[in-house]
Write a structure and sequence with these properties.
The protein is about 30% helix and about 25% strand. By secondary structure, the chain is of the alpha/beta class. The two termini are about 30 Å apart. The chain has 9 helices and 16 strands. The chain is elongated and about 65 Å long. The structure holds zinc ion. Zinc ion binds next to loops. InterPro entries: NUDIX_hydrolase-like_dom_sf, NUDIX_hydrolase_dom. Keywords: Hydrolase. GO terms for molecular function: hydrolase activity. Its cofactor is Mg(2+).
Amino acid sequence: MTRDVNDAWVECACGARHWGRQGAAGLALADEGALVLQHRSARSHHGGTWGLPGGAVQHGESSLAAALREAQEETSLPPSAARPHATIVLDHGTWRYTTVLAHASVPRPRVRPVDWESDDVAWVAQEEIAERELLPAFADAWPTIRRLLQARPLLVVDAANVVGSVPDGWWRDRAGAATRLLASIRSASRGGFPAAWFALEGAVLAWPRIVVVLEGAARGACEPATDDTAPTHRPAFRTPQVLRAERDGDTAVADLLGGLPPLEREHAALVTADRGLRARTAGTRHLGPGTFRSALRTLEG
Ligand SMILES: [Zn+2]
């Protein structure tokens, strides 16, 4: 296990002691109605209870990276076995705990206890979780985690409208402009988007399924490479999907949104400023290209 100056107790404003000077993070990895839980060893804080693998965030590390590193140290799970879904943050001001929710990228990846902190780690059926003796903080968070794991956030991007929102000469090379937008979305999406865009109540960040709709000459854009051959130390990020409209882009977007299953429709967001398309997709959350572009810049930077 790696040691760091942040592996230390914090006397918190709430009156309790918490682990991790820069806060802590844990991983809630789900697959087929089960979750990976850690049976905490008697020597650890709240020994004997079941909770999520996790630990102190280290210097310069994101909460996502910390949760995946700790999960690997405690359960041998490679980061590539997790597809990030959303984060929940418990913020005490002086200390914060981030739960990273993720879905398994392969069926039930194997887990086993690998350090002194765990007596056991196992896939536990979600119906059985509430019956176990749980770490109190995890027991509090579990209903929210369970609800959020069901949600299917979706981001649909009207590429023509986003590309057209800045007069940078895109009309000279529509396919090139769309290729740049796709690359930018792919790279920014790894950092996660604001969960509020998708009405994911209780979450801070979300990693949605992304569909970028291209029309006309922009349909010649190059698709971002898939992450199929990504190294095992990196999470399994979703590659944005590209939908090349057969007719006009607006019809493709409206058809896509109209055909979604309820769990996805409820958490869909469409990026467009086009009034006609907004009217055709009433009932869906809409984001302006300015908001979207500024989020891309922040996330890429
Ligand atoms: Zn506290």
